[in-house]
Amino acid sequence: MSLHEDHVREALKQVIDPELFVNIVDLGLIYVVDVLPKEGEEGRFNVNIEMTMTSPMCPAGPQLVAETKKFAGEIESVDEVEVKVVMDPPWTQDMMTDDARDQLGIF
After folding, report:
1. How far apart are the first and last CA of the chain?
2. What is the SS3 assignment for 40-86?
């Protein structure tokens, strides 16, 4: 079995920002998803994720990181998940999908 970035991003759509009620993928908070095959273990993967927050002092930050690790780690072929929070580039509303904008009433 092979695992792709799209599979991980789909799983991460289960992580909902508790203040905005929109998933973190559509909000544009997920910057990087690296799926790394484990050496010598066919069909097993480690996942490295770089994500940001809507603001540096986001009160939901620890919860979003924990849920990101949880849902990525629940993918059957994933062994380890590393989540790194980055603030560069800073998040802006331009990073949101059209679906997120519609949900939030931003045009």
Report:
1. 40
2. CCCCCEEEEEEECCCCCCCCCHHHHHHHHHHHHHCCCCEEEEEEEEC
Domains of the chain: which residue ranges?
5-91
- What's the CATH number of domain 5-91, 3.30.70.2210, 3.40.30.10, 3.90.980.10, 3.30.300.130? 3.30.300.130
How does pLDDT run across 7-16, given as a tens digit for each residue? 999 999 999 9
Digit-coded pLDDT (tens) for 64-89: 999 999 999 999 999 999 999 999 99
For residue 34, what is the enclosing H or E element? strand 30-37
